[in-house]
Amino acid sequence: MIDAATPKSEPHVGLFVTCLADAMRPNVAFATVRLLEAAGCKVSVPDAQTCCGQPAFNSGAADQARAIAENLIDAFLPFDYVVAPSGSCAGMIKRHYADLFGGRPDWALKQEELAAKTYELSQFLVDVMRWRPEGVALPASATYHDSCSGLRELGVKAEPRALLESVEGLELRPLAGEEACCGFGGTFCVKYPDISAAIVGDKTKAVRDTGADLLLAGDLGCLMNMAGKLSREGSNVRCFHIAEVLAGMAEGDGI
Amino acid sequence: MSGEASPAAFKQEAKAALGRPQLKVALDRATGLLQGRRQDVLADYPEFEAAREKAARIKDHTLENLDHYLETFAASAEASGAKVHWAATPADATTKVVEICKARGAKSATRVKSMLGEEIGLPDALAAAGIERVETDLAEHIIQLADERPSHIVIPALHKTQEEVADLFAERHARPRSSDAVEALVESARHELREKYVAADVGISGANFLIADTGSVAVVTNEGNAELTTALPPCHIVTVGVEKLVPSAEHAAVLLRLLSRSALGSEFTQYVTFFNGPRRPGDANGPEEMHIVLVDNRRSDMLSGEMRDMLRCIRCGACINHCPVYSVLGGHPYGSTYPGPMGSVLTPALTSLEEAGDLPNACTLNGRCQEVCPVKIPLADMMRTMRERQWRENHVNRRARLPLIAWAFVARRPWLYRRATAFAVMAMRRFRSNGGRIRSMPLASAWTAARDMTAPERQTFMTQWKRGRRR
User: Fold this and answer.
1) Which of A56, B146, B383, B398 could share a disulfide with A65, CB 3.0–4.6 Å?
2) Confidence of residue B142 (pLDDT cuts 50, 70, 90)
3) Closest chain A residue to B470 measured between Cα atoms?
4) pLDDT score for B179
5) Could you tell me which of A101, A25, A9 has the C-alpha nearest to residue B462?
6) CA-derived radius of gyration, chain A
7) Which of B25, B334, B366 to mutate to test the interface with A (most CBs of A within 10 A)?
8) Within 13 Å of residue A207, how many CA atoms lie on the same side as its CB?
9) What is the dihedral of CA A137, A142, A146, A150, to 10 degrees?
10) pTM
């Protein structure tokens, strides 16, 4: 849990959609808008956004990462808050943008200002807006995977669970090894596919062992990885982003 | 000692390791047990975070003043009657050890497990000199019988199941044993080793810590083999990396409180011994001669560079036990004395980034390693730093470089990015199969070999949002 200052009424939030939600799962972004508006925010989606630059950063291409970061910083600086439905993207901005602008004080200042007001979705809803969903029902059993970046870079742990408690009929079952990496690791899963497949195989076994209907998490990279493996295994477990569940938009086959 | 291993063979060795179901059984048992035990022991150790902080500062201080502490250590050790030798390279170190053995006419040497000993190639050097090497750690004894390399720095035979060990002992031990139970296996090994302890001409150990103010050498074991190895023969040789120094025994105590908790989930090892030079007049026993070979092997290079924090490492192996990559591969694919996260950071520094190029990349950057490290080494961050060096120095091949450069070109131009992503999702949808997901797709075989892929919607979110769609 973060100790955050009380926001003014109707804070203006810039939604950082994230490249994965934009291309692969728009429903997550639509759900995020709905949640932010229900919590009392005015939501804008700046047109100039693309990606946070993490793929370049984690590949060691710091110059490329910096250029992409500059674009994002300028796009989002005007807002009261910046919210992303992703621990890894929010973590990139909050924890790693500082690494990109050493020796460039003007950008360093802007980056610091942005980092201070950027939040992962569940932390924003719980710790900043102090909000819980109301009137959302999903009678099913579910298990939750803690995505590594959100967990270790931002401390996202209690917030998703606190939010899910408000969903009527949802039975949350503990996942053995819930904090263990799912093996996605961004470019890792395509550079070392065999190793990644072995790791996600361990994860999906743990998921199936819970007997839960649904697998939930806060990051699309993890979700696509685990959902893809479960599907290939012929499993009936349906995977959703937590935003979709909280907004009452978790329908169909899932991710 | 079986063949030359190299981190350059990582990909092939990883593939081979993934094809061994027995290995996975051993890995799951071991890592599960070690993770659980560490968690339990830390539940009773509320000072853990404060101890980590203190331990990191002790190591940093010592490293910042390493020359001073080395001089202090050498003077104190020699004052206690030990002989101190300096080895810049592995070859210098093994040459010195063999020289000492030959000067004593040594035919056999008992050994306490030492990763530094592996690092400098001591087993091969002893073999080349015709000196019998007797490993006294149960796990190293197993490894020696199987003619393999250690796969973990604390539990070298972690990759072997109990069943495999039972078969190995049945084949290689002189005396048949009573059963396959753990107690019987241990008893069988003890029996094999007992006479060798007494017969050895030289005892060779490493060191967990070097105490600068007293010139002492601290060694920890759970089996008591360090004491038998070093007290019985007339000569004790220590091979140790210079980064093992701490200012005093009090400082060692802070690190010792973290070592066994982090490594094995126990508060302390069964045996903790501080060696203070050879036998003195009036001592009932002890070696006549004690030699301490201080090994540099790139450590002073690391002191002045980006890899400096790695020198804090106390070789607990916690990072290895919590690494998802290690948990499916085991230690051998790393092709190095040091596997797992600490190995992925240390090996490129000891060899080269070219030779060990896969190691910092075969990592999901999940960060669990740096979370469990008792001396707060930022292991995952350091792996990323190495990737930056690889990129800058052009070690990254064109196949990997070009797609990233192309993607980055697009990603900083929003108008181009919109068009590219709109096109990409349209193209991907063509590969939907009956179930609605994508089972295979050109350019995506790395993913689709093992998993299905979500099929995107017809339009990206940004396209839909701009057209006024809401949900």
Assistant:
1) A56
2) very high
3) A30
4) 81
5) A25
6) 18
7) B366
8) 33
9) -20
10) 0.95
